[in-house]
Amino acid sequence: MIDTHAHLNLEDFDQDRLKIISLCQQSGIKVINVGIDYQSSQRAIDLAQEKGFYASVGLHPNSTPEDPASLITLLDQPGVVAVGETGLDFYRQSNDPAEKIRQQDLLLIHAQLAHRFQRPMIIHCRQAYPELLVLLRRELSGVPGVIHSFSGSLDEARILLNLGYYLGFNGLIFKQNLDEVIRSTPLERMLMETDSPFLSPPSLDQNRNAPHLGLRPVVEKIAFIKQISAAEVIDLTDKNAYDLFQLEKYD
Ligand SMILES: [Zn+2]
Predict the structure, then answer these.
(1) Ligand 1 mean position to 34 CA, how many Å?
(2) Which of 8-17, 29-38, 83-92 is the least confident region?
(3) Which of 22, 100, 111, 204 is packed most tightly, with the most Cβ within 10 A?
(4) Residue 203: which CATH number?
(5) What is the residue range of 83's domain?
(6) Ligand 1 centre and the CA of 96: distance in Å?
(7) If you measure from the C-alpha of residue 186 to the centroid of ligand 1, how many angstroms do you get, rounded to a whole number?
(8) How far is the CA of 180 from the centre of ligand 1 (A)?
(9) How many structural domains comprise the chain?
């Protein structure tokens, strides 16, 4: 199994990071750790030295603003399979036009880096799907990627799939009803993720999510909704992760 979006690079794992890494490796789970700022991107790269671990570098729209030019030196490092997470999040600053413009500009810079370094994008979107769709259609066509932690409508899912994007699903599917979206999204376009330490499935009797604990329940719920086996979900979505992130280059 491949957890295509985790944050073992964040300080939530400072106390027992090595233990969690070895639990993932023992469970046969590969992990893409995703940066949210310069420092966590650097730490994701450090973790990519572990077997079955990969990194994505980017500046999250909600992180304290930093110069995105700093990412250029990181993108050359071994194990960096994607640019992100980047994207739009208007949940907190929905009424600040200047902030919306800042996030959109930052997303465009990430897209330029993705194009230049030939990496896919990991895109975060919260309460900003209409604006994201405008950008993806007008400015970013041709840069492949995943809309991680998909939380939009059925129509928005269809449009994103038509534009060629993958949709990432995690423990959010236990909190928000995405059954219809999952039913109508072909498995060939889905990626599995945990967004650890966030979004623990309810079956996990703890606050902190982790790949070896939180990925399996997501796979099983998707298998149940699609009326197929968990093994089929794993086979196909692992292949998707290999295709999008070209993981064979890094193994
Ligand atoms: Zn994330």
Answers:
(1) 7
(2) 83-92
(3) 111
(4) 3.20.20.140
(5) 2-249
(6) 23
(7) 23
(8) 23
(9) 1
pLDDT at 107 over 70: yes
What pLDDT score was predicted for residue 139? Answer: 79
Q: Which residues surround ligand 1, an ion (CB under 5 A)?
A: 195
Contacts of 86 (CB under 8 A, 6+ apart): 58, 59, 60, 61, 106, 107, 110, 111, 121, 122, 123, 124
- Ligand 1 mean position, distance from CA 106 (Å): 17
Cis omega before residue 11 (within 30°)?
no
Distance, CA of 41 to CA of 77 (rounded, Å): 11
Overall size of the chain counted in residues:
251
